[in-house]
Design a protein that fits this description.
Largest sheet: 6 strands, parallel
Number of helices: 13
CATH superfamily: Response regulator
Low-confidence stretches: none
CATH topology: Rossmann fold
Radius of gyration: 17 Å
Shape: globular
Strand content: 5-15%
Strand order of the largest sheet: 2-1-6-5-3-4
Number of strands: 6
Distance between the termini: 17 Å
Bound molecules: uridine-5'-diphosphate
Structural class: alpha/beta
Order of helices and strands: HHEHHEHHEHEHEHEHHHH
Helix content: 55-70%
CATH class: Alpha Beta
């Protein structure tokens, strides 16, 4: 866990956005994983995912407040959360400004349709190289298409760790592309699922809002977060 926490990007969102902007313009590829405590717990328990997170080409951003707090606890100053939703939004905006292309893979067919229509309206210069839902498509067939189309941005919204394992399988074959596993971001950005109101975000209670909306998340959330907090507390003691 310590190794993973030490790898998490800890500068500001603004600085991170400058990096992705530059890489998008110069066609340097990137593999971004946005981490909440659950992501890192899966990382600890799943060797394949752990190896991916440790890879040099993988950038991990602190998506959840739990990760931000954990970094502070082990003495790494961290600025703020850098979420999958915000990274997706930034990439789509920059893609629109610079006439870049995006490939969208994941979410329910009806969500994806709404999302694509919204993007066409809001970002007329953004090229949609492909859009495949996450329920009726063969993963390898979709990535074959991605390799052919060579999009500038690849957003994979299938959930952790499936989306990262899949990006990792094909990443070395891509010549360019900012690849991000974005979880439920299409649901939020399409307007199908509301993000927490600003006040929840400001008070670092977005997780509480999400559980309130989807109580079935509670078991999953509780299990991974309690274990995560225990591990982080131990690291904190060791560091003293
Ligand atoms: N999803 C998908 N295919 C599947 C399972 C899930 O496309 O077989 C999508 C789902 O519709 C949602 C996203 O993957 O848009 C996962 O969202 P969630 O909020 O659970 O992501 P996480 O918490 O893993 O970031």
């Amino acid at each position: 866990m310590k190794q993973l926490l030490e790898k998490v990007y800890n500068k500001s969102q603004r600085e991170f956005f400058e990096i992705i902007e530059d890489n998008l313009k110069s066609e340097n590829k990137m593999f971004i994983v946005t981490a909440n405590p659950e992501t890192l717990m899966i990382g600890v328990n799943n060797p394949e995912f752990h190896d991916i997170l440790k890879k040099g080409e993988v950038t991990i951003t602190p998506d959840g407040i739990g990760v931000v707090k954990a970094l502070s606890a082990i003495g790494r100053d961290v600025n703020e959360r850098i979420t999958g939703v915000d990274i997706s939004k930034k990439l789509l905006e920059e893609g629109n400004k610079n006439n870049k292309s995006v490939y969208l893979y994941g979410a329910k067919p009806e969500v994806l349709d709404i999302f694509v229509a919204k993007l066409k309206k809001d970002y007329p210069n953004l090229i949609i190289a492909g859009a495949r839902d996450g329920y009726n498509n063969d993963e390898d067939e979709v990535f074959k298409d991605i390799l052919e189309k060579q999009p500038d941005i690849v957003l994979v919204a299938l959930g952790i760790p499936r989306q990262e394992i899949l990006i990792n399988k094909y990443y070395h074959k891509l010549d360019k592309g900012i690849c991000v596993g974005v979880g439920g971001s299409f649901d939020v950005l399409s307007g199908t699922k509301k993000r927490a109101p600003e006040v929840f975000i400001k008070l670092n209670l977005e997780w509480l809002y999400r559980i309130g909306k989807e109580p079935k998340r509670f078991g999953r959330f509780y299990k991974s977060n309690v274990k995560f907090i225990k591990i982080v507390n131990k690291l904190k003691q060791e560091g003293k």
